[in-house]
Amino acid sequence: MSKCKVGMWMYKNGGGEIIQNEIVHQLQERDIAVVSDLNLTNARATNGRIICRGTAMEELDAFFSYNAGKQTQYQMYLYQTLNEAIPCLNNFTSFALTEDKFRTSHKLNQAGVTTAEYRMLRRGDKKGLKKTLKDWGDRLIYKPTDGWGGMGIVKIENERALDMLFPFLEQTNIPYFYVEKYINYDMTDYRIDIVDGQYVGCYGRQAPKDSWKTNITSGGSIILREPSDEAIAIAINAAAITGLEIAGVDLIYDLEREQYIVLEINGIPAFATPEQQQLGLAFNQLKINKIVDLITRVAQG
Ligand SMILES: Nc1ncnc2c1ncn2[C@@H]1O[C@H](COP(=O)(O)OP(=O)(O)O)[C@@H](O)[C@H]1O
Ligand SMILES: [Mg+2]
Fold first, then answer.
1. Of 6, 45, 64, 156, most Cβ neighbours within 10 A?
2. Ligand 1 pocket, 117 CB below 6 A?
3. Bridge partners, 260 (sequence order)
4. Could you count the other beta carbons within 10 Å of the beta carbon of residue 115?
């Protein structure tokens, strides 16, 4: 068997470069060659081949795509195309699914996993939106389906606020309204990391005093927490339903229904930064090991 060769593209900020070096090192020890920095933004495709910085992508045995920055449409397009030819981690289909909050919630619900109640409405369906607000007892959240960092998510607590939102929504060119019922929770969440169907680690985030969003970019802070077996089982199941090989599953505990709900699933869950490691987040090594095992298996498969 000829020597395996894998490509990768990984984020470098927040300690990412150290993680990347460790992954490359471990793969090389297994006699797997690694070409890094294969950002598909810099690739061109012609004659049945995608060429990225001199590398013929289709000749790789696997491609590990792990850059959390916003991907361009071009990048996603080539990722999708490449996924038809070689194994990609995450696989493109599941990655694209989890980039969309509506499609993810919908799929999870069909499989019996509890999420926030949601509704997808046609753009401009004011009547539907007003009825939803009423049905949900004035607790509605408008969410962009492809947002991140809590951005663009707004809470609507009465009809007047909704009336004020319409002109804004009409200025955008979104084709639909995706809304969720506001969950009454303790303002903390769980981020549960799953690799290859196995539990890797967990931490939580706490919303700042003046906000109900736990995102770090919305001022949230990291908390150490141990997940219950139930929470882990929910995360493993949810990851499996999406098909993600590597997943960060976000849960919150619904105080009214008295159960965990899956809030969203991230296809490029960040490793703990050096600062977070100092706080006690200790899952990086296990996560690296499991990702290396996964890449090895997929590349040699
Ligand atoms: N239905 C909801 N009920 C209550 N809080 C929510 C709900 N949806 C989101 N949030 C809060 O908003 C934050 C951001 O929402 P999320 O769906 O995770 O989008 P993003 O991709 O921007 O992180 C969550 O971490 C949570 O704190
Ligand atoms: Mg989130």
1. 64
2. no
3. 253
4. 20
- Residue 127 Cα, ligand 2 centroid: separation in angstroms? 28
Burial category of 301 from C-beta neighbours within 10 Å (exposed 0-12, middle 13-18, buried 19 and up): exposed
Ligand 1 pocket test, candidate residues 263, 264, 268, most atoms within 8 A of CB? 263
Mutate to test the pocket of ligand 1, among 105, 133, 153, 209 (most ligand atoms within 8 A of CB): 153
Note down pLDDT in tens along the chain; length 301 residues.
579 999 999 999 999 999 999 999 999 999 999 999 999 999 999 999 999 999 999 999 999 999 977 788 999 999 999 999 999 999 999 999 999 999 999 999 999 999 999 999 999 899 999 999 999 999 999 999 999 999 999 999 999 999 988 888 888 888 899 999 999 999 999 999 999 999 999 999 999 999 999 999 999 999 999 999 999 999 999 999 999 999 999 999 999 999 999 999 999 999 999 999 999 999 999 999 999 999 999 999 8
Which ligand has the shortest distance to the CA of 144?
Answer: 1
Residue-wise burial string across 9-38, b where 16 or more C-beta atoms lie within 10 A, e elsewhere: bbbeebbbeebbebbbebbeeeebebbbeb
Is the minimum distance from the CB of 105 to ligand 1 under 6 angstroms? no
